[in-house]
Amino acid sequence: MPVLIQLNTAIISLCTETGVLQIRVLNASNPEAAENVFRPWEQRTVREGVEPLDSDEDDPELLLFIPFTSDVKIKSIMLIGGDDGSSPDKLRAFTNREDLDFSVVNDLPALQ
């Protein structure tokens, strides 16, 4: 299932606040596409030339670790699904954790 996550605030684009090269993803069929997760607001719907982040065929869960380079306050998150109408049915957010993997998040209460 292709996923593009867009985070946006009215004050500053989070594209400048992420360590793009430090974004990590677990369970992706194409982990190199994780760097495409954050894009400027005006490019949020551009699909040409941008590889979407896909989960493995046999397991649809993705786990993204997104380090920010400064403190941020996220007011909204936009998920843009695939061209075929597919989209994630659940999103869980955790803050200030670098130890996350699937065994940890299954037992951990999400912030949101």
Q: Explain this structure to me?
A:
The protein is mainly β. Helices cover 4% and strands 16% of the residues. The protein is built from one helix and five strands; from the N terminus they run E-E-E-E-E-H. It has one helix at 102-105, and strands spanning 2-7, 24-26, 53-54, 63-65, 77-80. The protein has a three-stranded antiparallel beta sheet, with no helix packed on it. It has a two-stranded antiparallel sheet with strand order 2-4. The radius of gyration is 14 Å and the shape is globular. The relative contact order is 0.27. Mean pLDDT is 75; it is low at 1-12.
Main attributes?
5 strands; two-stranded antiparallel ribbon; three-stranded antiparallel β-sheet; disordered N terminus; 112 residues; globular; 16% strand; mainly beta
Beta-strand content estimate: 15-25%
Q: Mean pLDDT, rounded to whole units? A: 75
Query: How far is the N terminus from the C terminus?
Result: 22 Å
**Succession of helices and strands:** EEEEEH
What is the strand arrangement across the widest sheet? 3-1-5
Discrete helix count: 1
Share in helix: under 10%
Biggest sheet: strands, sense, closure?
3 strands, antiparallel
Low-confidence stretches: 1-12
Radius of gyration: 14 Å
- Structural class comes to mainly beta
E-strand count: 5
Shape: globular
